[in-house]
Amino acid sequence: MIKYIIAIYAILFTFDVSAQDFVPTHYVTHNLHVRTEPTTSSSVITTLPRFTAVQIIETGITETIGSITAPWVRLESQSGFAGWSFSGFINEIESEIAKELADEFAHRSAGSYPADQHRYPESRDVTSITAVQAGEGYYIQQWPRRFQGPGNAPEILQLTVERSIAYLREIDIVDGELIYRNEMILEFDGKTYSYEDNYLQQSGDAIHIYYRNNVPEDTWLGTWDYRLPYTFAGSTDLPVSDSVKQYTTDYLSRFAGTYDYDSHSILPVQNETLDVDRIRSARITVDYDQSMKSLLVRQHDLYRIYGGESRIRNWELSFIETQPGVPFFWSYGEGFGFSEVRFFFHKGGIAVTYESRGYQVDENREIIGHNIMKYVVFYRKSPR
Length: 384
Prior knowledge:
Elements: E1 2-10, E2 26-28, E3 32-35, E4 44-48, E5 53-65, E6 68-77, E7 82-86, E8 90-92, H1 97-105, E9 124-125, H2 129-134, E10 137-140, E11 156-162, E12 165-174, E13 177-188, E14 193-195, E15 198-203, E16 206-210, E17 231-234, H3 242-245, H4 249-252, E18 257-266, H5 276-281, E19 283-289, E20 294-298, H6 299-306, E21 316-319, E22 329-335, E23 337-346, E24 349-361, E25 367-381
Antiparallel strand pairs: 1-13, 2-5, 2-8, 3-4, 5-6, 6-7, 9-15, 10-11, 10-17, 11-12, 12-13, 13-14, 14-15, 15-16, 18-19, 18-25, 19-20, 20-21, 22-23, 23-24, 24-25
């Protein structure tokens, strides 16, 4: 049985949801704790990954930690967390970020992400309610980002056992409240616990959930891979784990906005001509669709930056990848040469890296040289 319900519960944790129009001014230079008070003895709210964008709200006491003397600051991160951090590991966002990215890009080869291969985990049926109860918690897809394929699906699942009955629900956090949707009862079908096409498996002691409730009728390259299981991401005790929060509306919606040209850098190896006017005039608009619980970007916005005007249908790409450096879109193609482009969040903006290599041939089709293009563009988030 499935119930299409929305149950709302107020939850308490330090997660600022008031600034939907957040425009960052600083970023963290190392993985950085956010704490409840300006002291290392206070509780850790979260740890911000390197290059996470932040906004400083208040400056507190100055302290020396290790060999670094700096004030504590109360901050808000682009991901929505608010609290105190030691500012010795926080820098102001620089101008012309593309030049810094180009130094790193110069040492990376195209196609260097893992290939589009997943070994689907070996598993066995779940035959007892005790095993289900041992696996109670929140579940998400959390597989390494794949090359030339879709990212992780956006659902957060909650698995619970109540009065010896196994329940599976989707959850979200909207305006600081925990919302339940699409509750279903998993029953033992003679092999495992399931409801229609949704079922449980076990790998070692870990429960894997195969959730097919939202599989679209038409699939293509950008469709989420629902063949992959959802794996344990945290207990249902508060506060909700960081890995789960990153899939919520309150977290993802803060990355929506308009991103305008900031800077670009052409690497010295290039001998092709870049249309600088095209990339300067380009704009990336990122929307948030709460019904899909995902960010959306129009393909034409992306293609204009690396390919010019597109004649193909202007489809929308759905994605939830917001971690610094993790591509939310990239494409790689080979033929008489290759080309690769990646888009990812970096220091509160969107970075684009592009590389292509073709061949120059003579009348006998002998290779006499190369056509090379390699550049970086950075688009900064604009205030509304």
